[in-house]
Specification:
- The complex is a heterotrimer of chains A (320), B (315) and C (263).
- Chain A has 320 residues and is mainly alpha-helical.
- Chain A has a domain at 41-253.
- Chain A contains twelve helices and four strands.
- The longest helix of chain A is centred in the first third of the chain and has 49 residues, at 19-67.
- Chain B is mainly alpha-helical and 315 residues long.
- Chain B has a domain at 21-240.
- In chain B, helix 1 (2-46) packs across helix 6.
- The N and C termini of chain B lie far apart (71 Å).
- Chain C is an alpha/beta fold and 263 residues long.
- Helix content of chain C is 38%, strand content 22%.
- In chain C, the strands form two sheets. Chain C has a six-stranded mixed beta sheet with strand order 6-7-8-3-9-10, sandwiched between helices. Chain C has a four-stranded antiparallel beta sheet with strand order 2-1-4-5, covered by helices on one side.
- In chain C, helix 5 crosses helix 6 (158-170).
- The chains are: A mainly alpha (320), B mainly alpha (315), C alpha/beta (263).
- At the A-B interface, helix 5, helix 10 and helix 12 of A face helix 4, helix 9 and helix 11 of B.
């Protein structure tokens, strides 16, 4: 396992082993992101905004799947909780968007604790199916309830003001998502190199040994699940105000699977890999327009091949 | 007097609904049980939650659909045609199950649990989207003509179709029970679910038994898929998703790994669902939510199920 | 805290799996600053006893106390927090992690920084991280493999992997260390090093050691007390000399192929 491979990609990655080079690379990427809309035009900007949304979602799911090793098949539920909380509170109750954000986070945390507490002590495959069930319950409920607008959802969600600046064009939203993605990356890096981040890896590699080291595995897993939920909910909140309209079908099982694919294709637990995965999932269908219906099949086959031949994902494993 | 009559009518109609839901529940439960058996058998020998199982059922429905469109001109679109389609679908999809096991699961035998689960999910997505691509996501009308005859038992009408369906499911389950209890392979299957390494040491061909298990589990799902297509009138690429989760729920209710448990769990879930939707406030649009809620409750309250063995996990 | 109280005390511990008795009314204790060994034929229930003490198995009845605190019914991490650390019979290091990261796991239960302080990078969190790291290095120096701290733990030589496991257990700051066959798979030289290490754990760190070991020569050399478990029953308890002369023990071992080991 984890044999260093000698290919061109690896050699390039190896150039960034020193911290200052990594910071430099990060700065270059951020600079490119900032000037991208100017050179690429409005259509590409909307696509890139979507890719950045998936970066945040995938980094959130990465905490659950990549770090803590819990298979969550209903992650879109938290995306939905955030979107609907903001949708309902701004549209139906007329609250200001920024005021609704804490409610969105709170709702996701509560949902995470309610679902996580009883199920995180179960076997990992049971957890997968429970999360799937939870995802479907949330979607069905959104479709069947009045307050969520039923099958047609909620439209006319107000776009937010920030210190007198009305965020309402696709370009402005693009920059909002750049900021969100940068925050998500920083939070992920800090968590990964913390006491909690290491605990997730211990639990993922050997739950019994982690318990023997005095780690409350259920609590640590719950922390991962709830933090993932918060990422998802915040993504959903901004998704709702960006589009101005939400409907249950944006939060289907396929959505959860797509986010999961972003995490696994690039490489679970590796932040650059997950970002790469998110861009692949969003950009590949755009670049390969002719594929049409084959898109999902291609992803599915790709996922299977990755699991069989390179389970660590596209992003290279760092050799020791 | 009139009040008495009305009261009597009301009782009659409540009783009527009760019996009708009982029959509906049995039909639904038969489908769940057949699919749940595959989950439980495969889980027993390889300790793998085969996420792709619902899609194997779906592929079974499609193979049945294709075969029926070929044989219907020869033997007619009635139950004979469906029976032929079902048998062909069982054999073809049984083989598909073995191929899936060999190609996708065999190499992952010693991989971390998370990788195995994701691989199973990937297989499910390949099957689902493969059929989606081939059929452009359209419903395919099955074209079976099963007639509307039945037996009127006073309050209750049972169609011949419902009887044939439940009867076929029961026959398949009895055959399975005989296979497991009377044949060498069946006994080996049970032995492997208890201690795989010990079986290897005792000279049991574990690989062959695993293949047989995947074959039978997938074939039973294919039987259910073909019958569901014929009974409900059409097949489509996503038909395995919900029943996959529900059959898993049934397997868990009965106790995963237990064959009688899967049958029992299937019937219980079928009945729960058909009666559950009669409770005021839980309309049919909440039917699926109801099943998921049952699943979560069972997993949380009694993860070993009704007939599953609870034992201290050994390290 | 009374010093006459034994550090670890088991009373009437019963454990069975599916009707098969594994431990039968076991009474057992470990004092302070001592090395105690638990021996017995294969399948006698030694590792099961460890698993009961550390909370991995739930005995049907009995009492397990450390420093007078009841451990029965506690989850393993609570037992570790109460001061009992363990190693595993088949080394269980965290794969794809460095030696240092492995040992840092032991400090988890003695530190507290959560998600928010990590995300904000608070000074208290940074200080704690530095302390966790320093303590892990200290533990690695104690077991003598600090120079390998940045290597992938599972790439180490087997003997060194065993030391990582001991360092990891020490990092939890235990009062009592449970070692499950620490000498298995080691050569003569490595066994001698291990003997010295176990002695130093007691002498320099004032940690009691409870040892399951098959190498009876080593057990006789190092232990102050020995308990013998056979078919889930403690059949003898005493100093090494007494155990060697105990006819019940000899009989239990003669039933086995390696019976002559003891004599």
């Amino acid at each position: 396992m984890a044999q260093p491979r000698s290919n061109a990609f690896n050699n390039i990655i190896a150039q960034f082993d020193e911290p200052w080079k990594r910071y430099a690379a990060f700065a270059v990427i951020v600079a490119l992101l900032l000037i991208a809309p100017i050179s690429l035009g409005p259509y590409a900007t909307v696509i890139l905004t979507n890719a950045l949304l998936y970066v945040v979602l995938a980094l959130g799911l990465n905490v659950v799947v990549g770090y803590a090793g819990l298979l969550d098949l209903g992650y879109a539920a938290f995306f939905a909780v955030g979107a609907y909380t903001v949708g309902i509170l701004t549209h139906t109750f007329g609250l200001d968007f920024w005021l609704t954000l804490p409610f969105a986070v709170g709702a996701a945390m509560i949902a995470g604790v309610i679902i996580g507490t009883p199920t995180l002590r179960l076997r990992s495959d049971y957890l997968a199916i429970v999360t799937l069930g939870f995802g479907e319950i949330v979607r069905f409920s959104a479709r069947n309830m009045e307050i969520t607008g039923g099958a047609s959802g909620i439209s006319g969600i107000q776009q937010p003001w920030l210190f007198g600046w009305h965020i309402n064009t696709p370009f402005e939203f693009y920059y909002v998502f750049v900021v969100l993605a940068i925050i998500a990356v920083i939070v992920s890096v800090r968590l990964q190199h913390s006491r909690l981040g290491r605990a997730w890896l211990y639990v993922r590699h050997d739950e019994d040994a982690a318990e023997a080291m005095g780690i409350d595995t259920v609590r640590v897993k719950l922390a991962a699940y709830v933090i993932g939920a918060i990422f998802g909910s915040i993504s959903g909140a901004f998704f709702a105000v960006n589009l101005g309209a939400i409907s249950p079908e944006s939060f289907s099982f396929q959505q959860s699977v797509l986010i999961l694919m972003a995490v696994i294709l690039g490489g679970m637990g590796k932040i650059p890999g997950v970002i790469l995965g998110a861009f692949i999932v969003v950009l590949a269908p755009e670049l390969l327009r002719d594929l049409g219906e084959y898109r999902l099949l291609l992803f599915a086959v790709g996922l299977l091949l990755i699991m069989l031949f390179r389970p660590s994902g596209i992003w290279p494993v760092r050799g020791k | 007097m009139t009040i008495g009559v009305r009261w009597g009518n009301l009782c009659m109609s409540v009783f009527d609904i009760f019996l009708q839901q009982l029959v509906n529940g049995l039909v639904l439960g038969s489908f769940y049980a057949l699919v749940a058996l595959g989950y439980t058998m495969i889980y027993g020998v390889v300790k793998l939650l085969n996420f792709a199982h619902g899609d194997v059922y779906m592929v079974g429905g499609f193979v049945g659909f294709l075969v029926l469109s070929v044989v219907a001109p020869m033997v007619g679109p009635g139950w004979t045609g469906v029976a032929v389609s079902m048998v062909v679908a069982m054999i073809a999809v049984g083989c598909l199950g073995v191929v899936i096991q060999r190609v996708a699961y065999q190499p992952m035998l010693n991989a971390p649990r998370l990788s195995i689960l994701i691989t199973a999910l990937a297989v499910s997505l390949v099957l689902q989207n493969g059929v989606l691509t081939l059929t452009h996501g359209q419903y395919q009308p099955m074209g079976a003509d099963l007639g509307f005859g039945g037996v009127n038992l006073g309050l209750l009408f049972i169609s011949y179709n419902q009887m044939i369906l439940v009867g076929t499911a029961a026959a398949l389950m009895i055959a399975l029970e005989l296979f497991v209890s009377r044949t060498q392979y069946g006994r080996a299957m049970r032995a492997i679910s208890i201690d795989k390494d010990m079986c290897r040491l005792m000279g049991i061909n574990v690989t062959a038994v695993i293949a047989v298990t995947f074959f039978i589990g997938s074939a039973l799902a294919a039987a259910a898929g073909t019958m569901a297509g014929a009974y409900y009138g059409s097949v489509w690429y996503f038909m395995g998703f919900l029943i996959g989760i529900k059959a898993f729920t049934a397997a868990v209710i009965g106790g995963i790994g237990s064959i009688p448990g899967a049958m029992l769990g299937g019937l219980i879930l079928g009945l729960l669902e058909s009666f559950g939707t009669q409770i005021p406030g839980i309309g049919s649009e909440w039917k699926d939510v109801f099943s998921f809620a049952v699943l979560i409750l069972v997993l949380v309250l009694k993860p070993t199920g009704l007939l599953g063995k609870s034992e201290q996990e050994r390290m | 805290m009374s010093m006459t109280l034994p550090l670890l005390e088991l009373r009437g511990v019963n454990l069975s799996f599916a009707g098969n008795t594994v431990l039968d009314n076991v009474d057992f204790s470990v004092g302070r600053d001592v090395i105690v060994s638990l021996i017995g034929p294969n399948g006698a229930g030694k590792t099961s006893l460890f698993n009961c003490i550390t909370g991995f198995y739930k005995p049907q009845s009995g009492s397990i106390k450390v420093d007078g605190h009841e451990l029965m019914g506690l989850k393993p991490h609570k037992v570790t927090q109460a001061g009992i650390a363990r190693t595993f019979q088949n080394v269980r290091l965290f794969q794809q992690m460095t030696v240092l990261e492995n040992v840092m796991s032991g400090s988890h239960c003695r530190s507290r920084a959560g998600a928010i302080s990590a995300i904000l990078g608070l000074p208290s969190q940074r200080r704690e991280e530095a302390a966790i790291r320093a303590h892990a290095i200290e533990c690695l120096e104690f077991v003598g493999i600090a120079d390998e701290m940045d290597r992938d733990a599972t790439n180490l030589a087997y003997g060194h992997q065993r030391r990582v496991e001991i360092a990891r257990a020490l990092a939890t700051r235990p009062k009592l260390l449970l070692l499950d066959e620490p000498a298995a798979g080691l050569n003569a030289g490595e066994k001698q090093d291990l003997l010295n290490l176990i002695g130093r754990i007691r002498d320099e760190l004032a940690i009691s050691v409870l040892l399951i070991e098959h190498d009876t020569g080593m057990v006789m050399k190092i232990s102050e007390r020995i308990s013998v478990l056979d078919h889930g029953v403690i059949i003898a308890e005493g100093a090494p000399k007494e155990i060697q002369a105990n006819p019940k023990v000899i009989e239990a071992y003669l039933g086995q192929d390696d019976g002559e080991d003891l004599l």
